[in-house]
């Protein structure tokens, strides 16, 4: 992806992208998150091979959920869902997603529903 296209997706100038690449400007956490979404990679992509603390599952959170939260499509889904203010529409969206998960042959939605209770 070109600098111009990435800048367009982020709503900034390509010069700002160049400053990020050169290290002239720092990238904040929320901007790094937006870049990961624009590039369709998990945020962990930017830290592969980095020395330091090994990646671990979140304390008290099952590994599949932790993995899902590192998936850019999960983040996109959560962002879109958070924009829905009407509770009945939110519930319908959950029902649709659960139906899709069920049709895909997974019971993961039941596991998550039980944990939410």
UniProtKB/TrEMBL annotation:
InterPro entries, sorted: Cro/C1-type_HTH, Lambda_DNA-bd_dom_sf
Database matches in Gene3D superfamilies: lambda repressor-like DNA-binding domains (1.10.260.40)
MF terms in GO: DNA binding
Pfam annotation, one family: HTH_3
Start and end residues of each HTH cro/C1-type domain: 1-46
Protein name: Transcriptional regulator with XRE-family HTH domain
Species this protein is from: Amorphus orientalis
